[in-house]
Amino acid sequence: MRSGRRQISSLRRRTLMNRPQPPSPFGFASAHEDFFHSLSLYSNDSYSISKVIYAPNNSSYSSVLESTIQNLRFSTPKTHKPLVILTPLRTSHIQATIYCSRKHGLQIRTKSGGHDFEGLSYVFEVPFIIIDLVNFQSVDVDVENKVAWVQSGAILGELYYRIAEKSRTLAFLAGTWYTVGTGGCFTE
To answer: Whole-structure pTM over 0.90, yes or no?
Structure first.
């Protein structure tokens, strides 16, 4: 029975890997046109949101996608790629992206640091977008109350550095890899 399950699982995996890629969002299939149009409408600042959207036809798309991928099996030509990568500057960009993604039936993946060895931030079986929180890196340490407010795009090294900057007696234990994103570290 188990070998039968393995064969089915293996067949399913090969079928998913060989499935054709979804069309590029800037190939301008009407659904994608509608998504980008509604994104510019629902964003409080359509000019700035246009500067943080990366699609496959953008020259920076691959470098933004691969900049923090630690597991190279998610960087193969057969791996399904996101239709769009958004690196928001404001929370209003995230809100608009969530609203428009729901409206247009697109799944969302969130990337905080890139140490996603399971690929949950990089791959999906249906059309998806990535919200990369790289621009949300603020770390505020309140020594008196022994509290730190950390945005999801900050990495552990930044958190450790800010704490050490403010106190020689406070610390936060979260791991030895300073490049791990706090968003993924704290939510797992």
So the answer is: no
